[in-house]
């Protein structure tokens, strides 16, 4: 049996790559799944080679090649393509696996297993000979390097979503860093062993041992200082092994230093170092014995302890009888220098995946990279926002300002009342016809009913989601009355769902207030808007005529009216210019295809390099600069518009003063202006209703997702309780039958993934507290529940 530790491989199951890729490409991709059928097959083959098989040197290249292709895949696809990837905890291969929809999880697990493979190969070497020790040291250094690469470059990208109820604790930084230190310590131990085998000087062996002790101390601290759930992942004998090794090699360093002092005839110093060595060896012996470290480790420590005890007795006797040298106190002894020979060796195929796949076609090499595709989408979004914010919105705001100003001045109604003393002006007839054809009041009433129905439907879905949670709370409380549950109560566990519900309910309340505002506005303007649907004859009859004026229109009034009409035509021309600028910008956007340039720039990056949208900022700026000319043209119109509105206000003031005695015309103006305002209110109400219906249609999708999330969460909680009940029932049957029932749950790496019903440990797990003792009294049950 080896006196060093090997990391087990994380056990996994088959995954349905083909179906996940097919669905993703059909929904998001520009390529049909059939076009990448060979790539999908290659992915499945590489995974099979990269995760299965026996412990063999050839598997290193298989894992490195698969990792390289995963690096390429992650440049083409997002991390979540709805592909469920299961891996069992590293030290509990028979436990239910952690399943995540995350391609980075797959890459992290592969690199972890690569480190485990290196450690297994190292453990299989014959360290009784020098070449075997060298190979073992190299493997351990590579294992440490793979773990360091995993910790620094991969784990930061392993981001979990709120839906991930389980997380792989064995892929957390404390675990990986602890194993990284452990592998490096074992590599250093190999160098120490080689130096001892080659009969190197005691001074060098002492320094090598001191460095080995420090590395084991780092490994122990990284594991021991982790939070309890992480620390408890490790088998108890591993912690004892690492801590015992720390004190063992500290004792070895002191012992070899004592031999060096003996050779230099410093007998007092020899005895001081032997005293330290004896204390360290005893400490290591106690830890290994109590922690049930492997027999090989206990034997090594026992041999050292016996040697130290023998030399200590001899040195103490000789110094007392012959040399009579003073024995320094431990605090006065100089620290033993370190000789750190072992180095973290990251496999070059991890830092440069091209080195192992240089001549191969990468998986999905024909697909547009995910980063490049995101960059294309980002550019199109920015372009759309630029046109909308800088051109369309500005044009609409200016138009609204024009309309407000003209409404305040009763234009063009006052001019039309003067120019057309009877009947309806053509511009108003067109608007009236629009409302009549749309059957405006009926349209608004129907939309208001639809708005109310959708508001009630949205609220009903939200209430149903909360009813589901309330039912689960009742079940949880009833279960706690009969069973001790080791999990948070419902009101704590469902906080994330309740917070979402509260946000949505606040949004619905705000929307209801907006709906009420629309209904109030309709009540206020219903009569006026209904007038727009009257027959033309009835509408004309309702408008006062100005033909009964006793005096003719004065030249002064005519002149001011003519000036106002010219200004209004200029205002219309300005609006046409703005609309033309928007039209030209949109036409340019229709033919503006940045795809080829993005792909060309992306192709210039290092192969297999991670392409991020931020890398294309310069391209975005250059391409969006094409629209600066339209923004400038739009801004140049602003001073002309302001000057024109000022002219209209001033001329209108003169116009009003010149005809202040024409009461009949004023009445006609007010009537025409009222119809104009009714039309604008009609448009405003219709627009508000359309926006409200659109809002509820969008919100209902989110509410249905929340309802489904509540169902899934509650079903998971119920399954936990049912699984616990079945497990406890099995234990009860075992007690009554005077035997322990053992459930075999070890999965097959090539078989389908078993249905995950809870996070309960298997019945043969140590977590249940079963002990190999004669029955009765029988096993004790530690109730556990899923996190």
From TrEMBL:
Keywords: Coiled coil. It comes from the Eukaryota. Residues 3-409 form the BRO1 domain. Residues 564-591 form a coiled coil. Residues 744-787 are annotated as: Disordered. PROSITE patterns: BRO1. GO terms for cellular component: endosome. Belongs to the palA/RIM20 family. This is BRO1 domain-containing protein.
């Amino acid at each position: 049996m080896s006196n060093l530790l090997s990391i087990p491989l994380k056990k996994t199951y088959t995954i349905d790559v083909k179906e996940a890729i097919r669905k993703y490409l059909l929904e998001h991709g520009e390529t049909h799944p059939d076009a990448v059928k060979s790539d999908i097959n290659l992915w499945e083959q590489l995974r099979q080679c990269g995760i299965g098989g026996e412990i063999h040197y050839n598997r290193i290249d298989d894992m490195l090649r698969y990792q390289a292709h995963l690096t390429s895949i992650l440049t083409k696809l997002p991390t979540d393509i709805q592909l469920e990837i299961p891996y069992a905890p590293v030290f509990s291969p028979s436990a239910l696996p952690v399943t995540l929809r995350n391609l980075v999880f797959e890459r992290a697990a592969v690199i972890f297993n690569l480190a485990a493979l290196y450690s297994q190969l190292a453990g299989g070497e014959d360290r009784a000979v020098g070449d075997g020790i060298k190979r073992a040291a190299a493997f351990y250094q590579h294992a440490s390097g793979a773990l360091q690469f995993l910790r620094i470059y991969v784990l930061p990208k392993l981001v979990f979503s709120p839906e991930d109820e389980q997380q792989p604790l064995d892929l957390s930084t404390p675990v990986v860093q602890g194993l990284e230190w452990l592998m490096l310590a074992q590599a250093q131990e190999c160098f120490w062993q080689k130096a001892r085998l080659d009969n190197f000087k005691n001074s060098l062996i002492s320094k090598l041992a001191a460095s080995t002790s420090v590395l084991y101390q780092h490994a122990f601290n990284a594991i021991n200082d982790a939070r309890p759930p992480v620390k408890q992942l490790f088998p108890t004998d591993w912690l004892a092994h690492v801590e015992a090794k720390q004190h063992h090699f500290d004792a070895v360093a002191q012992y070899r230093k004592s031999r060096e002092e003996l050779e230099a005839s410093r007998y007092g110093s020899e005895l001081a170092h032997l005293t330290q060595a004896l204390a360290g060896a005893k400490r290591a012996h106690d830890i290994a014995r109590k922690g049930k470290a492997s027999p090989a480790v206990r034997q090594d420590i026992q041999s050292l302890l016996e040697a130290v005890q023998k030399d200590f007795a001899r040195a103490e006797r000789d110094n007392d009888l012959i040399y009579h040298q003073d024995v320094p106190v431990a605090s006065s002894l100089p620290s033993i220098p370190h000789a750190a020979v072992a180095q973290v060796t990251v496999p070059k195929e991890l830092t440069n995946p091209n080195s192992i796949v240089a001549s191969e076609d990468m998986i999905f090499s024909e697909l547009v990279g995910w980063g490049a595709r995101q960059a294309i989408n980002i550019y199109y979004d920015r372009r759309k926002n630029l046109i909308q914010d800088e051109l369309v919105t500005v044009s609409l705001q200016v138009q609204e300002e024009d309309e407000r100003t003209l409404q305040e001045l009763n234009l063009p109604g006052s001019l039309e009342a003067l120019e057309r003393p009877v009947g309806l002006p053509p511009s108003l007839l067109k608007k009236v016809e629009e409302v009549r054809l749309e059957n405006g009041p009926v349209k608004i009433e129907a939309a208001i009913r639809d708005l109310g129905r959708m508001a009630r439907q949205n609220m009903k879905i939200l209430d149903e989601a909360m009813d589901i949670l309330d039912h689960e709370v009742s079940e949880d409380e009833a279960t706690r009355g009969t069973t001790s549950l080791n999990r948070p109560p419902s009101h704590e566990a469902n906080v994330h769902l309740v917070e979402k519900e509260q946000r949505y309910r606040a949004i619905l309340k705000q929307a209801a207030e907006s709906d009420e505002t629309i209904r109030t506005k309709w009540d206020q303007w219903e009569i006026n808007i209904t007038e727009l649907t009257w027959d033309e004859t009835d509408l004309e009859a309702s408008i006062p005529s100005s033909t009964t004026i006793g005096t003719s229109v004065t030249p002064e009034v005519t002149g001011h009216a003519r000036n106002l009409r010219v200004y209004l035509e200029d205002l219309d021309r300005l609006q046409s210019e703005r609309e033309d600028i928007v039209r030209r910008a949109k036409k340019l956007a229709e033919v503006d295809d940045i795809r080829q340039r993005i792909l060309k720039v992306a192709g210039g990056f290092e192969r297999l390099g991670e392409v991020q949208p931020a890398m294309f900022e310069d391209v975005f700026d250059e391409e969006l600069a094409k629209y600066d000319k339209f923004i400038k043209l739009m801004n140049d119109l602003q001073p002309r518009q302001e000057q024109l509105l000022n002219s209209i206000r001033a001329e209108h003031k003169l116009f009003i003063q010149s005809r202040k005695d024409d009461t009949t015309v004023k009445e006609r103006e007010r009537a025409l202006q009222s119809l104009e305002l009714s039309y604008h209110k009609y448009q405003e109400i219709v627009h508000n209703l359309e926006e409200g219906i659109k809002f509820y249609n969008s919100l209902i999708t989110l509410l249905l997702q929340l309802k489904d999330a509540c169902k899934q969460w509650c079903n998971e909680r119920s399954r936990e309780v049912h699984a616990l009940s079945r497990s406890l029932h099995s234990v009860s049957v075992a007690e009554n039958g005077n035997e322990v029932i053992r459930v075999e749950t070890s999965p097959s790496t090539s078989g389908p993934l078993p249905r995950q019903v809870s996070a309960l440990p298997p019945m043969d797990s140590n977590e249940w507290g079963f002990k190999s003792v004669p029955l009765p009294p029988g096993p004790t049950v530690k109730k556990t529940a899923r996190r």
